Amino acid sequence: MLKVKAFAKINLFLEVARRRPDGYHELATLFARIGICDKLSFKKAAPGIRLVVKDGPRDLGRPADNIVFKAAVKFFEVFGLSPAVEIKLEKKIPVGAGLGGGSSDAAAALLGLAKLYKLPPGSSGRLMKIAAELGSDVPFFMLGAGLAEGRGRGEKLRAFKAAAGLPHIVLVYPGSPVYTKEVYGSLKLGSPSEIKRRLADFKRLTGLLKEGGEFGPLLFNRLEDPVLPKHRAVRLAKEKLLGLGADAALMSGSGASVFALCRSGAKAARLAAEMKCIRGYTVFLTKFC
User: Fold this and answer.
1) What is the rounded distance in angstroms from the CA atom of residue 9 to the CA atom of residue 21?
2) Which of 15, 54, 130, 223 has minimal CB crowding within 10 Å?
3) How far apart are CA 5 and CA 112, in angstroms?
4) Per residue in 151-191, pLDDT tens?
5) Parallel, antiparallel, or unpaired: how do β-strands 2-19 and 220-221 relate?
6) Which residues are catalytic?
7) Residue 1: partners with Cβ closer than 8 Å, 6 or more residues away
């Protein structure tokens, strides 16, 4: 049996530069892979695709609607193979949390199937094309990189390495999902001058990560504007983390998760313990991968 981990991500930066004619938004974002993960296992089986989901929420729907199943269907179509596989998905990443759980699962499915069916090394281009069709975040997880700048709708990537000594992460999921379609539907873009300033901050942020400088003050997420006023639980989670002394705190992606950064491992452990006492919160103490 082949096993693959599907790691979550947070966004250290997310600015929306414009609405595109194709219906998507032009983004400048900074993906960071973190230690929380789902797990997928693969084995060849009777003809067809069988997906078994363990520990996921009850409202995930039919297996055929799951992005892992859709990734498998596309894999077999593109490579002209007869499907005969059983995939087991063990969910740990909260759904609707802005952590890219579904996208990471899809990437893990493609990579796992590629190994199971022993695709030649030159197959990576076609795999990446499938990934981009499945979702804007999926290509990032295909890279296996710890950090990457994302442009376009998030699929134009440039991976890089950070200096040693990245902070600890306290991640809080406040208990109810926030849906991306709702967020972008009520988003108001910044002014041209503000967007220009934020994009300059984006460049400075990546530079500080590479050099090992203090980058916390440059964290930014434009999607907080439509989310925090409407989703009290998300807003209070961020306020609580900052009130407890986090060095920085930000909503990830389109929410609902909020993360705090702490240079001190002891402070991070204390924050995590405090947040776990709040009813309805799911709290993770984790690190950058």
Assistant:
1) 28
2) 54
3) 9
4) 999 999 999 999 999 999 999 999 999 999 999 999 999 99
5) parallel
6) 9, 137
7) 41, 42, 43
Comparing CA positions, the residue from 17, 39, 20 lying closest to residue 28 is 17
Distance CA 74, CA 80 (A): 10
Residue where the block lists tokens 């776990």: 276
Q: Strand 282-286's sheet: what is its strand order?
A: 248-251, 258-262, 168-173, 282-286
Six token digits for residue 186? 């009520």
> In sequence order, what are the beta bridge partners of 204?
none
Are 107 and 141 contacting, i.e. CB atoms less than 8 angstroms apart?
A: yes
**Residue of 202, 5, 214, 216 whose CA lies nearest to 91:** 5
For each of the domains in the chain, give its residue range(s) and CATH number, in order of start. 2-160 (3.30.230.10), 168-286 (3.30.70.890)
| Tokens (6 digits) for 2 | 């082949």
Contact indicator for 10, 254 with CB cutoff of 8 Å: no
For the chain, report the end-to-end CA distance as a whole number of angstroms. Answer: 25
With tokens 């005969």, the residue in question is: 84
pLDDT digits (tens, 9 = 90+) for 238-274: 999 999 999 999 999 999 999 999 999 999 999 999 9
Exposure string for 167-200, b = 16+ CB within 10 A, e = fewer: bbbbbbbbeebbeeebbbeebeebeeeebeebee
- The radius of gyration computed from the CA coordinates of the chain, to the nearest angstrom, equals 19
CA distances from 95 to 38, 42, 172 (A): 11, 22, 13
d(CA 289, CA 285): 13
